[in-house]
Amino acid sequence: MSENLFQSRHAMGRRVVGQALVASDGFSARYDLNRLQGVFSRPAHKLVGQSYVDKILVLDTAKGGVATAWMLHEMRSRNMAPAAIVFNTVNTILAQGAAMGDVSMLAGFDLDITAHIPHGAMVEVDPQTHTIRVLAPGEYPAETADHASSAQKIHGPR
Prior knowledge:
Layout: E1 5-7, E2 10-12, E3 16-27, E4 33-34, E5 39-40, E6 56-62, H1 67-77, E7 84-89, H2 92-100, E8 104-107, E9 122-126, E10 131-134, H3 150-155
Parallel strand pairs: 3-6, 6-7, 7-8
Antiparallel strand pairs: 1-10, 2-8, 3-9, 4-5, 9-10
């Protein structure tokens, strides 16, 4: 793989392009997020205060239980969901939640993905090829800068 392209073992969803929020931290839709404001809210989380809406979350591992499945679906219904979630490791509950919430997901890398994707970088998540790629300036559509609906502009309405 090139230094900007990383292969996962597990993948689902649609191809999306967006800004990466990266942290060597876990993810629980129930405990880490304020789902009404669209931000990370757990004070100890490394992304506290940052908006996750339409972002590509690159995190260490999935945490939590069954609430995540319906929470991701509920977040999508209000256009307040991340565009994709990328994990070093994932559990079956989070995978079910991503499928239910129509959130693209990659998981299972041969390296620590949180150490190789720069925070704030524009990335392409392509579940068909099981890859995440860091994009160079000029490689991504200008409309991804329009935060309100960038995920829909890249892969169409849901």
